[in-house]
């Protein structure tokens, strides 16, 4: 008997992946291939440098370009990384305040942005960040018209939308870091409680990277075992209030880090490096990232909001959005999160 070389030879449908993913048509366009991988990081604060350092140690790029508005700090950060050359993979590190240095990037990561001042509203902060992004995004798009733009600056969902509009890139090549880190925090809490490795926990936070984020309890599993159904059978104390308290603990964990050390850096560095690896190395891994969500899970087509959904990432950016079976309550919460972001964008007056 001949041994089958693939599931298709056994009889599985060749279109099986279309039952699992909703593909993005734009992602079918062939990406520019290059042996020399270049990644740009815009913004050399604590977050930007944690990302650059993590990418550097993981040997993802051949060249890293750093851009910042403060020339002395920028040069100091570049030199500090360059001086570690004897202990790291061979990577060319360059820096400049001029965006010309970003030319021909494969991936451009934006971490620059204004911080919220005391007494300042969220809308005030957005308006200031809009002005900053008008200086950042157009030159990035001009010098690297085939790159993927990855937004990390907060509020990440609205700024990813702004980046999409300013760049005129197809939506598959504009991504926000979204709830990728939130989901890691969620997985950590679950893994810590269940005494397992967090990598064996499948759990997603979706929606806004913020207070209206949604925990997808119905799809959580550990090693293939559905967690909620198992807990419901064995834990009579499990209640909606406990689930909500857990979701709130995930959101508050970031605020706790900020209150203790003044900022977050290492976790977001690893989070964004994992996104960079999946994108640059065409890993086709699933990450919950901020993307153009109209048309998914009942989000109206006329509301162009970016929010996080589990998506397949590869060399063309977002290749598709995974079709998770959500409960009615989860869909309701996701749409409410979309409404929150849409209202914020409407108040911003940018389209």
Compact description:
The chain is an alpha/beta fold and 351 residues long.
Could you give the topology of this structure?
Elements: H1 7-10, H2 17-20, E1 21-23, E2 38-42, H3 46-57, E3 63-67, H4 71-82, E4 92-96, E5 107-110, H5 122-143, E6 148-151, H6 156-167, E7 174-176, H7 180-194, E8 201-202, E9 205-206, E10 214-215, E11 221-222, E12 225-226, H8 227-234, H9 240-261, H10 266-280, E13 285-292, E14 306-314, E15 317-322, H11 328-348
Parallel strand pairs: 2-3, 2-5, 3-4, 5-6, 6-7
Antiparallel strand pairs: 1-15, 8-11, 9-10, 11-12, 13-14, 14-15
Helix pairs in contact: 3-10, 5-6, 7-9
Task: Provide key terms for this protein.
42% helix, four-stranded antiparallel sheet, six-stranded parallel sheet, 18% strand, 351 residues, alpha/beta
User: Count of DSSP E strands?
Assistant: 15
N-C termini distance: 62 Å
Computed CA radius of gyration, to the nearest angstrom: 21 Å
* Topology as a string of helices (H) and strands (E): HHEEHEHEEHEHEHEEEEEHHHEEEH
Q: Summarize the main sheet.
A: 6 strands, parallel
Low-confidence stretches: none
Structural class: alpha/beta
Shape: globular
Q: Can you put this structure into words, describing what you see?
A:
The protein is α/β, with parallel strands linked by helices. Helix content is about 40%, strand content about 20%. The protein has eleven helices and 15 strands. The chain has helices at about 5-10, 15-20, 45-55, 70-80, 120-145, 155-165, 180-195, 225-235, 240-260, 265-280, 330-350, and strands spanning about 20-25, 40, 65, 90-95, 105-110, 150, 175, 200, 205, 215, 220, 225, 285-290, 305-315, 315-320. The strands form four sheets. A six-stranded parallel beta sheet has the order 4-3-2-5-6-7, with helices on both faces. Helix 5 links the parallel strand 5 (about 105-110) and strand 6. Helix 5 runs parallel beside helix 6 (about 155-165) and helix 7 (about 180-195) packs across helix 9 (about 240-260). The longest helix has 22 residues, at about 120-145. The radius of gyration is 21 Å and the shape is globular. The N and C termini lie far apart (about 60 Å). The model has no long low-confidence stretch (mean pLDDT about 90).
